[in-house]
Amino acid sequence: MAPDEAHAPAPGHAHPHIRRAVPNVEVSDEAAMAANRDFYGTLGFREAMNMGWIMTLVSPSDPTAQIQFFTHEATGPLVPDISVEVDDVDAVYAAMRAAGAEIVHDLRDEEWGVRRFFVRDPQGKVVNVLTHARP
Fold this sequence. Notes:
The chain has about 140 residues and is an alpha+beta fold. It has three helices and eight strands, in the order H-E-H-E-E-E-E-H-E-E-E. An eight-stranded mixed β-sheet has the order 2-3-4-1-5-8-7-6, covered by helices on one side. A hairpin with a 2-residue loop joins strand 3 and strand 4.
């Protein structure tokens, strides 16, 4: 089997378009968040969003190069290990359920403008799969 065939989607399903994949780092408090902002700022990252419990740092030269820091998870049961933004979160949710993946946090719309769910990968890591609401 050719490498492309081994990773082909199931019949009738297309691969989702991935917009970005972002590592999530859990920190103890807002002071630790600020310390990480300063440290990664030395590498060139800039704060793009800070809601107190989550902060996103972005590379000005490549906005898809990002790191997120969490003091806690606002609505989920735990801080996910990685966030993956896709074009159609509903289709990915359906595909994960059909594949028998462990859904850790059900699909829902969040007040800050994302639709998302959490799923556990084969290594036990939790993935936050999301789509941003489009105006």
